[in-house]
Amino acid sequence: MTAEVHLFSCLSDNFGALLHDPATGDTAAIDVPEAAPYLAALAQKGWVLSDILITHRHGDHIDGVAGLRTHFPKARLHVPLAEADKIVARTGPADHLLKGGDRINIGTFAGEVIETPGHTAGHIVYHFATEHLLFAGDTLFSLGCGRVFETGMETMWRSLEKLLALPADTRLYCGHEYTLANGRFALSVEPANIALQQRMEEVQQQSAQGRFSIPTTMAMEQATNPFLRAARPEMAASLGMTGATAADIFAHLRELKNKA
What we know:
Elements: E1 4-10, E2 14-20, E3 27-30, H1 35-45, E4 51-53, H2 59-62, H3 65-71, E5 76-80, H4 84-91, E6 96-98, E7 103-106, E8 109-115, E9 124-128, E10 133-135, E11 140-141, E12 144-145, H5 153-164, E13 171-173, H6 179-189, H7 194-208, E14 216-217, H8 218-224, H9 233-239, H10 246-259
Helix pairs in contact: 1-3, 5-10, 6-7
């Protein structure tokens, strides 16, 4: 049976997401900014929480875990090994400590853990290949990427390269609704990108109608997301950086975005 993903708002601009397997009833929360929206979503759907998947240690991704676990004490907590100490200090004990290449099962769905250091040094993402799903946390956004706080810029670029290699039909779920602002920046650095122009028209319509801008696909991101296009000659030309390395172009883009 096909995976169900239920998306909803948390805090001011975070996404909450639940992954549900209709065959087994297992349901996973991907990051928990705050407990109340998850409890409401689970009650609305009539789902029982079985797992909590954490991408990284920032408070706006874990602050609701402890509250959620009081209502679902049997839910298994999965956290990145490299950030486990800082996470469990705020969430309580973890059931599984994950590193790149590890496998995780939510009901009948098999996921792979991919290490994506950059936004934080121990950030991980969850890829469910058979279901064509990527839960990217704050590594990759629609039309954007996370700020680089704890590593060098090249490390973040190598993390994005891993995601670039995923199948084009992979559906991207990310941690924040930043697409409209990301799109304005993207147009400022690659104004001649027709696919980006069309994507922005769609995003503006979605925003006006109060609809979410995700999920998007890796195919769409490859065509429109400036940070994923750092190796593309047209991006280099647009920036006046023909001949520069992809890592250097990415770093330049990230610095420009930081100042935007």
